[in-house]
Design brief:
Number of domains: 1
Order of helices and strands: HEEHHHHHHEEEHHEEHEEHHHHHHH
Structural class: mainly alpha
């Protein structure tokens, strides 16, 4: 079956749950701040209810301090503004210039980006020097992110993951917001011989390659080509840019769908559609550097080209870009709705090996305490925001019926997340949203005594995105403008 979409639920109907969530959130943020040492590394996920570090990459620090800024916006408590601002200025500078990760949109937009947005919206007093500092950080972050570039054989390219130049992660769709903001601030990446590299072009190119190789469309590209399915990683030959195969780091296999990766795709494509819509007039067409064709794809490259082409590389038009980006957003959203439990929470991977033991689990509300496979509430928090943003975008572009369906789906998922057993109500538990999974294949998730699979724990990205989702709805309830980072 699929998600049982409640066509009647409204944002206003969720107000009590949202206010309760932020009431609980306040104490948890303060508990994390007082109970973790920055020298020990960024808090990543909870073990027995206490946030712990996990040395891999420090991709969650921005979620920690960004959560305090979202809390301030929700409840007006200036303690959280000062906490988020102080720690951003004290701890986040190294993330701005971090050349080794694809995580700039996670770390820096959640911190410097939120502070810049709060000041731009008049929610905190305007200070020119502060504003300049935030904008400089965002400009540099976007350029550093864009510099992680692997050229593909067809003349396009992508921002490679921390795994190396061969690796295209689906996660990076969500971090493209870093390039988008830097572009809107008028920034470019300067290369050798003073070559000016457009951040907008790199954003579009990366999204194009991701939509082509990480998203499937059910068009006969092999036995695992199920429409809307997502590969966590696409692997390319870094010597010549030829596509090799799908892969998965945190999912079960390259031929199943890791649902947090699916959620990153939904939200990432939906937010970039917002960005494209915010660009003034004909600027998308005039600013893109797609006016010449890239080098021809010949010989062995041609024989290895992916047949599943969304369009011809080079000479893209704004309508083509919007078409394939909308298509990628809608097919992944539909796949999510068809492969989550009836209440909107997905299992951690759609091909997890013990799902068959759960019977008709898609026809029932999720059971985080089942003995066979974990759910992933963090995927739900990310996907719900993506569904809401996609619904709003489609409604604005005249596709009102589809837009309403995705919007109601997002509200239905949010209603589940913002209540028990997913909302963490125990004061001693530092997490906000329970039953999040980090890295099942590596065995990094805590399994409590008496349980067979991970449950009852939280993640920094799940908690941050639940707060961002709640704030998105709270602003609507208050009659405020939508929560967006991009200036129209």
């Amino acid at each position: 079956m699929s998600l049982k979409i409640d066509t009647q639920v409204t944002a206003h109907a969720l107000r009590a749950r949202i206010e309760r969530l932020f009431d609980l959130s306040a104490a948890k943020i303060l508990s994390i701040e007082g109970g973790t040492s920055p020298e020990a590394g960024a808090p990543v996920h909870t073990v027995r209810g206490r946030y712990t570090a996990r040395g891999w990459t420090e991709w969650t620090q921005g979620f920690q301090f960004g959560s305090a800024l979202l809390q301030f916006e929700a409840d007006g408590d200036t303690r959280f503004l000062e906490l988020g601002r102080r720690q951003t200025m004290a701890r986040m500078a190294t993330h701005v210039s971090h050349v080794g990760v694809h995580d700039h949109g996670f770390n820096n937009v959640s911190t410097y980006g939120n502070l810049w947005r709060l000041m731009r919206e008049g929610r905190i007093p305007f200070d020119q020097r502060e504003n300049d500092a935030y904008e400089l950080a965002l400009k540099v972050s976007g350029a550093v992110q864009a510099a992680r570039w692997t050229r593909t054989a067809d003349g396009s390219g992508f921002i490679h993951s921390f795994n190396g130049p061969h690796s295209l992660f689906i996660d990076t769709m969500r971090t493209l917001r870093s390039l988008a903001i830097a572009h809107q601030l008028g920034h470019v990446l300067m290369g050798e011989q003073d070559v000016r590299v457009s951040l907008l072009e790199r954003l579009i190119r990366h999204a194009q390659v991701t939509a082509t190789y990480n998203v499937f469309y059910g068009e006969g590209d092999g036995p695992y080509d199920v429409c809307g399915r997502v590969a966590h990683e696409s692997v390319f030959n870094p010597a010549n840019g030829v596509y090799r195969c799908p892969n998965s780091q945190q999912g079960y296999s390259p031929f199943s769908t890791w649902t947090r990766g699916l959620a990153w795709a939904i939200l990432g494509f939906a937010e970039q559609l917002e960005f494209l819509a915010a660009l003034p007039g004909r600027s998308l067409e005039s600013e893109l550097c797609f006016h010449g064709r890239p080098p021809a794809v010949e010989g062995a490259f041609a024989s290895l080209k992916r047949t599943r082409r969304l369009f011809t590389v080079g000479a893209l038009t704004p309508n083509e870009i919007r078409f394939w980006m909308t298509r990628a957003a809608t097919v992944t959203a539909d796949f999510y709705l068809e492969n989550c439990c009836a209440d909107g929470i997905p299992m951690w991977d759609t091909g997890a090996p013990n799902l068959h033991r759960l019977g008709d689990y898609l026809d029932r509300p999720s059971d985080p305490y089942n003995p066979w496979e974990p759910v992933d509430s963090s995927a739900a928090a990310i996907a719900a925001q993506g569904l809401l943003r996609l619904g709003r975008h489609l409604d604005r572009t005249g596709r009102c019926r589809e837009g309403r369906r995705y919007r109601q789906a997002g509200l239905t998922v949010a209603r589940t997340l913002f209540d028990e057993p997913y909302l963490s109500t125990r004061p001693r538990h530092q997490g906000l949203i329970l039953h999040s999974v980090y890295h099942r294949p590596n065995g990094w998730d805590h399994i409590a005594r008496g349980q067979k699979v991970p449950n009852g724990e939280s993640s920094m990205w799940g908690d941050y995105h639940a707060r961002e989702l709640a704030l998105l709805l709270l602003r609507e309830i208050r009659g405020e403008p939508p929560l967006v980072f991009f200036r129209s």
